[in-house]
Known about the structure:
nine-stranded mixed sheet
Amino acid sequence: MNAIVVVDKNWGIGKEGNLLVHLPGDLKYYKEKTLGKVVVIGRKTLESFPGQKPLQGRTNLVITRDESYRAEGCILCNSKEDALERLKEFEDKDIFISGGESIYREFMDLCDTFYVTKIQEEFEADRYFPRLDDMGMEMVWQSEPCEDKGVTYRFCKYVREQL
Ligand SMILES: NC(=O)c1ccc[n+]([C@@H]2O[C@H](COP(=O)([O-])OP(=O)(O)OC[C@H]3O[C@@H](n4cnc5c(N)ncnc54)[C@H](OP(=O)(O)O)[C@@H]3O)[C@@H](O)[C@H]2O)c1
């Protein structure tokens, strides 16, 4: 299973229900990686998307505790266990844990590949991703620096170190 995320220098990922900064190059990369695949998101992340609509061209699995919640075009699950049951019909490599913080933390242990876009700046944040460098994960690849709107970032790939 994969996780995909964009973080700032402090591993911040969001503020007041939104991303820290909109980087067109990163959104394109996210789309390329996830198109035709399954994205697993929390209810709050779904509601942060334009029009609160699911991502096109992807299977959107949304997790909420609210059994009466409705979201057109999404598979709704009411617990992690429920989500894992639904995910059995998909190949592990096709699954992208896509946030927010609560969902990343809950599915962290099940992920072996992490696509992390690292912004080389600090933003004010109220949501964070676990610091992979402190968790026995190894960065196996990073891109050359990219720049959007004067913000520099790199695409990185981490894998869980084999024991
Ligand atoms: N930088 C990035 O790559 C990135 C990616 C995605 C999101 N984000 C940011 O992350 C922030 C949102 O993160 P968040 O942690 O506040 O919210 P979230 O993880 O998107 O959603 C939290 C909600 O998910 C549901 N949920 C979580 N665990 C559950 C479980 N075990 N069983 C059932 N439902 C569960 C609950 O929904 P109910 O309250 O409906 O029960 C909970 O309130 C936003 O700022 C967003 O922009 C950043």
